[in-house]
Amino acid sequence: MTYYQDDHSDRCEFERPGSNSALRAATYRNPRNLPCPQCEAPNRLTPADRRRHYVCDECADINEGGGY
Ligand SMILES: [Zn+2]
C-alpha cells in the first residue's frame, strides 16, 4: 500500500513544479521513505529533507499560514 512503488513514480502531488515546496525531489539514492515529523504521515520526506528538519508540504503550508 505504498504510493511509491519505484523510482519512476515519484511525480506525486507534493512535488508540484513551480510551487514553493522546499522538499528535495526523491531519487533512487534519496528515497522518500521517512515520515513527516509533524503530522507523522508516512513516506513524506527524504533523508535529505530530514537532515534539514523539513516537514511535509501540507505541514509547511499550515506552518506558513495556509498560503493559498
Ligand atoms: Zn506533515
Write the layout of secondary structure elements.
Blueprint: H1 47-51, H2 57-63
Bound molecules: zinc ion.
Explain what you see.
By secondary structure, the protein is mostly helical. The protein has one domain (1-68). Helices cover 18% and strands 0% of the residues. The chain has two helices and no strands. The protein has helices spanning 47-51, 57-63. It is globular and about 30 Å long. The structure holds zinc ion. Zinc ion binds next to helix 2.
Structural class based on helices, strands and sheet pairing: mainly alpha
H and E order? HH
Query: Radius of gyration over alpha carbons?
Result: 11 Å
* Total beta strands: 0
Mean pLDDT: 79
Beta-strand percentage range: under 5%
- Distance separating the two termini: 30 Å
Q: Which residues sit in consecutive blocks of at least 5 with pLDDT less than 50? A: none
Number of domains as seen in the coordinates: 1
